[in-house]
Amino acid sequence: MSDVTRAKHGRPVHHWRRDVVELAALFTAVAVADAVANLIGHGPDGTALLIISAVVLVATAGFHTWWARRHGHAPPADDTGARPPADGHRAGTSEESASVPESLAGATTLWRMRTTVKDAPGSLAALCSALAQQRVDILSLQTHPLAEGTVDEFLLRAPSELAASEMTRAVSLAGGTETWTERADAHDLVDAPTRVLGLATRTALDAAELPLALRQLLGRCTIRSLPAKSPGSGRAEESAPVEGALEGTVMRLRAPEGGVITVERPYLPFTPTEFARARALVELDARLGPRIPRGRDTLTLPEGNAISVRRADAADLDAAKAMHERCSPHTLRMRYHGPVGDADRYLNHLLSPRFGRTLAVQTASGRIVGLGHLLWDGDETEIALLVEDDWQRRGIGGELLGRLVTMAVEASCESVYAVTQSSNTGMVAAMRGLGLPLDYQIEEGTLVITARLDATPVTSRLPYDEGQRGERVVRD
Questions:
Q1: pLDDT per residue over 127-178, tens digit each?
Q2: pTM of the model
Q3: What's the half-sphere exposure (Cβ side, CA atoms, 13 Å) at 33?
Q4: Is the pLDDT of residue 97 over 60?
Q5: Which of 46, 92, 402, 456 could crosslink 40 through cysteines, CB 3.0-4.6 Å?
Q6: pLDDT tens for residues 336-355?
């Protein structure tokens, strides 16, 4: 075993050459002392000189010991040269220190930070140095050049005990202005190009994904879709140029069908880079045209009737109006909370993928007997159901509601709400059947039921069992 290896494992290292030299020095010192003692002892003042020499040696040894203890220059007698670290842990190589588990090093938190700095050499280095002094690790960095300055967007891993205000203060002292910080999660660890490509893929597969893709691309923001102005309507809808418009915290994009998509983020202005990315997603949606997934699930009701559930869009407008004509005024009033004659004009909005997702329940003959809507309402999400009178109380409403809640969870919605009449016991029972925490608000006979989706890992409790040959049986 080599000396280096023995020292690494905490064992003392001895050299036989050093022992021989020390032994020879000892014999030489004894011989010299004997000769000096014989020379001085036979002189006239020999005894006095010996006593004086002994006193000087003792005084010199005492002074040396005091000086060594006071200034710490002399190692202890048993020191082998391998000192343990101050915290009592065994010293090791840099690779060993880097492999210390995170639980020993302390818990960390992911943050997203955005700040504006001057477009000058060294400005980014100053920010990185300020974050390093706070023991903050920079995981990724994006830069958004502006006319005056640059917006730097960081993904950070910081010690859990470090408050966001302390990071903001450190960045401000390093030259950052208009600093914005929010908590991040593991999904933010994906690099920007990969995330944008994933959002583009989702948008290409389903037109209803565009608002959700914009929200994930731009962070926390409110997205509203306004329909195009119809001739003779007398309404003054907001418009946007073909290339879109960027005004600080608001961007307006021309929707493919002629309407306007408004994106608003009051706490932070949009950058030209973000505007270009959002416009590219909208242009992709426009080039691909109307599209929805064409999947279909076949279900069997308790009495044996076969129905199917599929996505619906504006192409189902005539069939949806025909279902309205078969519904009773009471059913339409429970659903739309207004004059029954105005029910048909809501369908253009409800069936458009721009405003959400719609599920249709269809009989074997092709007749639509139920509609379920998941509507993007700004930064909130609404659920609405309509089932034809002759097909109510057969489990169709619960089936639609469970599927819509599952869609909302997949879209990362934190909650969904349903607006109905307080006397609509069927809707209340269907919402309670989800098994999710519910909040109730009643105002002038209108009931708003909100289901919190982040309170349980279960997306929904669908009221059906797997049947034979891929079919599903709907319970009452």
A1: 899 999 999 999 888 888 887 788 888 889 999 999 888 998 999 898 888 8
A2: 0.58
A3: 10
A4: no
A5: 46
A6: 876 666 666 778 888 888 78
For residues 55 and 60, give the distance between their C-alpha atoms in angstroms, rounded to a whole number: 9
- Cα 51-57-59 angle, rounded to 5 deg: 100
Closest CA to 280 of 243, 228, 311, 248: 243
Q: How confident is the model at residue 80 (pLDDT cuts 50, 70, 90)?
A: very low
**C-alpha–C-alpha distance, residues 238 and 260, integer Å:** 7
Tell me the longest C-alpha to C-alpha distance in the chain. Answer: 141
All structural domains of the chain, each given as residue ranges with its CATH number in brackets, are 1-30 (no CATH), 107-188 (3.30.70.260), 192-288 (no CATH), 296-474 (3.40.630.30)
Contact between residue 290 and residue 234 where contact means Cβ atoms under 8 Å apart: no
Residues in the chain: 476
- Distance (Å, whole) CA 33 – CA 414: 92
C-alpha 339/C-alpha 324 separation (Å) is: 13
DSSP structure class, residue 73 = -
Which of 451, 420, 400, 401 is CA-nearest to residue 336? 420
CA pair distance 103, 39, nearest whole angstrom: 72
Alpha helices in 42-110 (DSSP H): 46-71, 94-98, 102-105
Q: Give the pair of three-digit tokens for residue 303.
A: 């009495």
Half-sphere CA count of 444, side-chain side, radius 13 A: 1
What is the Cα–Cα distance from 418 to 356, expressed in whole angstroms?
Answer: 14
CA distances from 290 to 155, 197, 198, 200 (A): 36, 20, 20, 15
Q: What is the pLDDT of residues 377-434, one digit of tens each?
A: 777 889 999 999 999 888 888 889 999 998 888 887 888 999 988 788 888 888 888 8
Out of 55-69, 306-320, 405-419, 459-473, which region has the weakest mean confidence (pLDDT)? Answer: 459-473
> In terms of pLDDT, which residue wins out, 83 or 425?
425
**How far is residue 116's CA from residue 179's CA, in Å, rounded to a whole number?**
7
* Cα–Cα dist 370/104, whole Å: 57
- Kindly compute the dihedral angle of the four CA atoms of residues 26, 28, 33, 34, in this order, to the nearest 10 degrees: 110
**Helix ranges (DSSP H) in 237-310:** 272-288
